[in-house]
Amino acid sequence: MTPELDDIDLGTVPLGRTGLRTSELQFGTWRFGRVTEAGNVEIDETRAHELLDAYEAAGGRYVDTADVYGGGDCERWIGDWLAERDRERYTVASKVYWQIRDGDPNSRGTNRKNVRHRVAALLDRLGTDYVDVLYIHRWDDETPARELMKTLNGLVESGKVHYLGASTLRPNAWKVARANEIARNEGWEPFTVLQPRYNLVDREIEGDYLEFARQRNLAVSPWSPLGQGFLTGKYDRDEDLPEESKAAESSRFQEAYLTEENFDVHDELDAVAEEVDASPAQTALAWLAHRDGVTAPIVGARTVDQLTENLAAASIDLSDGQVDRLTAAKPGPYDGL
């Protein structure tokens, strides 16, 4: 049973080697202002503030965003919300990379011109002098690593950014390692926080990427911890898709997640969830939190009830056997890691 918000009290964990502590479940805001394929806005400003209020009420203090979420509205809404609070009590992370102006190739990637412009703009939208963590949203192979790290180091030295992170869809540990080696040799700020996709059915980072993060004490804050909603239990292999669900509005989602292999994983997830008296979503989040090398999953939600359910996962304890069963349901590319 999901407790009330007042009964949830999120703890904190070290954010890798930064010296900061982060909420054990971070709050992801990518749905704020997002327009679906069907033309619907997933979360408007009123609900965005309600969700931020709920996260705060549960003890959460780490808000993750990006400059392209909602075309910039996401950051503006977060900024308005923060304006009524003590900024220093909250850790805010944002990201830069994706193209923002049609016909302008320099408005994409991590070239110096684009990064500096984008950071100035996101700080204005957030109404703050700095972000605690700045991620590159994806890796830009057209910008040399040395150029990138010099640019990012300048932002840290100016006080506009405190720590650096790298977000990725596919494992790229060697690129982060190379960039950090350049930074170390030059006395520049390295990447200390990583944000990969990771959940029970998306297991690409198991192996070199996750092992690299563990060895270097880099924070790992996975995005999509519920497989874009697949692991919530709302989908059934033998039934029609729920109306207004992500699957109903996205053909890409259907192809990526609604597979027999993934439904087999969900069968094991349902079994463990019943054993611990939790929902599939809570159990999937608990599994992720139990994974060696994972710092704090990034959770999101469309409603306060969904967010409350997800945050309650912090209090669920799985046995080693249950963790092993879930892990084995869909082995990653490197078994045993």
UniProtKB/TrEMBL annotation:
<dbReference type="InterPro" id="IPR050523">
    <property type="entry name" value="AKR_Detox_Biosynth"/>
</dbReference>
<dbReference type="Pfam" id="PF00248">
    <property type="entry name" value="Aldo_ket_red"/>
</dbReference>
<keyword id="KW-0560">Oxidoreductase</keyword>
<dbReference type="InterPro" id="IPR036812">
    <property type="entry name" value="NAD(P)_OxRdtase_dom_sf"/>
</dbReference>
<dbReference type="InterPro" id="IPR023210">
    <property type="entry name" value="NADP_OxRdtase_dom"/>
</dbReference>
<protein>
    <submittedName>
        <fullName>Aldo/keto reductase</fullName>
    </submittedName>
</protein>
<dbReference type="GO" id="GO:0005829">
    <property type="term" value="C:cytosol"/>
</dbReference>
<dbReference type="GO" id="GO:0016491">
    <property type="term" value="F:oxidoreductase activity"/>
</dbReference>
<feature type="domain" description="NADP-dependent oxidoreductase">
    <location>
        <begin position="24"/>
        <end position="329"/>
    </location>
</feature>
